[in-house]
Amino acid sequence: MWSLAVQRVTVTIDDDLMSALDRHMEAGGHQNRSEAVRDLVRAGLLKEPKLDDGARVCVAALVYVYDHETRQLSKKLVHDHHSHTDMSISTLHVHLDAKSCLEVSLLKGRKSEVEHFASHVVGERGVRYGQLVVVPADAEAGDEADHPHPHP
To answer: Known HAMAP family for this protein (predicted)?
Structure first.
């Protein structure tokens, strides 16, 4: 997806934004501003919706917090995941306090179907927070020579 060739560009940024970029660079452990800007641009472009990518296969993390005392909610969430075993890879369940649970569900499937599933889960009564992070399944992770073992 991303080329290894690079282009040099010049960008004009006001002082406040440059200070924020420098803080981001330091906090993120970037060696220079170019690395920081590249990562921010890449992250922004991955979030950008594309008209034709609903059929593209993606991997995603659905993070949500819910009230486990809400009637039948835990049962509904488990049922939702079991009804989508083709999409649901794994779910991490954490008890935050006496009433609240956090779940992180790893999903894989067509982007439109993953988004529909996530919207359904987050829309359940008793789910207080939800966010979906989507990454194209074909996003390049680097040279395959550095990663020789196969994945199913």
So the answer is: NikR
Residues 70 and 119 grouped into a single domain: yes
Residue 93's CATH number: 3.30.70.1150
Which positions make up the binding site for Ni(2+)? 82, 93, 95, 101
The count of structural domains within the chain is 2
SS (H, E, C) the chain: CCCCCCCCCCCCCCHHHHHHHHHHHHHHCCCCHHHHHHHHHHHHHHHCCCCCHHHCEEEEEEEEEEECCCCCHHHHHHHHHHCCCCCEEEEEEEECCCCEEEEEEEEEEEHHHHHHHHHHHHCCCCEEEEEEEEEECCCCCCCHHHCCCCCC
Residues making up the annotated binding site are 82, 93, 95, 101
With a cut of 50, which residues of the chain have pLDDT below it? 51, 142-143, 145
